[in-house]
Amino acid sequence: MQIRTEREMLELILGTARSDDRIRAVYMNGSRTNPDAGKDIMQDYDVVYVVKETGSFLADECWIKVFGDLIMLQEPDRMDMAAGREVDISQSYGYLMLFTDGNRIDLHIETQESMLDHYGCDSLTVPLLDKEGILPKISPSSDSMYHVKAPSEVHFQHVCNEFLWCQQNVAKGIWRKELPYAKNMAETIVRPMLDEMVSWWIGINREFGVSTGKMGKYFGDYLPEEYWSMYKQTYADSNYENMWQALFIMSDLFRFLGEAVAKHLNYCYPNKDDQAMTKYLMRIRSMPKDAKHIF
Questions:
Q1: Whose CA is closest to 205, among 227, 223, 228?
Q2: What is d(CA 109, CA 46) in angstroms, rounded to the nearest whole number?
Q3: Superfamily (CATH) of domain 147-286
Q4: Checking phi first, is residue 208 left (phi over 0); if not, alpha (psi -120 to 50) or beta?
Q5: Considering only CA atoms, which of 251, 263, 57 is closest in space to residue 171?
Q6: CB 55 within 8 A of CB 90
Q7: Which residues of the chain have pLDDT under 50?
């Protein structure tokens, strides 16, 4: 099946809004509104319909069939309600739709009251239709709010401390051969600290004028080949020796970038803690499984 073009999708989204008296305005945000983002067929359509009320839409969900045949639908607000979380669906509601041609629309409906609480707070916002002149004036779309920001010294030190401290948990998990624990520690605790440092390094080298993208998806565009090669090697498989190697490469890369960021911002990189933790990690790596003491 041929995927519908951007023009066809926007005509469908806006045509549906024009023909429905309940819909008062339409705006879009996300990567399709970013003039600096690359374009491809995997981009979502992040669309908001400003509506007179949400009740009639929720009473008959067949109305979303106009957008095409679905592979799958997710309704986060419905799931939140089922889990007992407080959700005001009288003000807004979301439909995440993946279609059989590969297009995806993340569609939210919201009242004017809800819209006025946050419209324009996202710098990647573009008005598409305003039947009644209810959308406030906003600046042209840009990714400025997503640019890397220079850290305060307190935050810089916190990230360094968290990265260095939690490496020992990864090491413990590898030594014990507790694969889920070691992998989760490395990926959910240690890696986010590394990613912050990578972003700051990119920031200081780009005058804090770029975005590194959601979850660092643009790291490869901004890191020099040497550092990008190291970063890729921080992703290990389930082999414990490879996990050790990845952990030490993480440590080296963090140190190289951290020292550069600290120098640029006139901060102090915690070399003493780094050296002590590296020595500790090397000791844990060399210990036999039946070790009775660490040092």
A1: 223
A2: 11
A3: Nucleotidyltransferases  domain 2 (1.20.120.330)
A4: left
A5: 251
A6: yes
A7: none
Amino acid at 185: M
pLDDT of the residue at 82? 95
What number does CATH give the domain 6-142?
Answer: 3.30.460.10
Please state the φ and ψ torsions of residue 201, each to the nearest 5 degrees.
-65, -45
**Beta carbons of 183 and 252 less than 8 angstroms apart:** no
Cα–Cα distance measured from residue 133 to residue 143, given in angstroms and rounded to the nearest whole number:
25
Q: 80: Cβ–Cβ under 8 A, 6 or more apart, which residues?
A: 87
203 in Cβ contact with 211 (< 8 Å): no
User: What residues does each domain of the chain span?
Assistant: 6-142, 147-286
The Cα 213–Cα 174 span in angstroms is 31
User: Which alpha helices (DSSP H) does the chain contain, by range?
Assistant: 6-19, 55-59, 76-82, 112-118, 153-176, 179-184, 191-205, 219-222, 225-233, 240-265, 271-286
Q: How many helices (H) and strands (E) are present in the chain, helices listed first? A: 11, 6
Side chain identity at 38, as an amino acid letter?
G
CB 46 within 8 A of CB 106: yes
Instruction: Please tell me the predicted confidence (pLDDT) of residue 104.
Output: 97
- Give the Cα separation of 63 and 56 in Å (integer): 10
pLDDT value of residue 167: 98
pTM over 0.85: yes
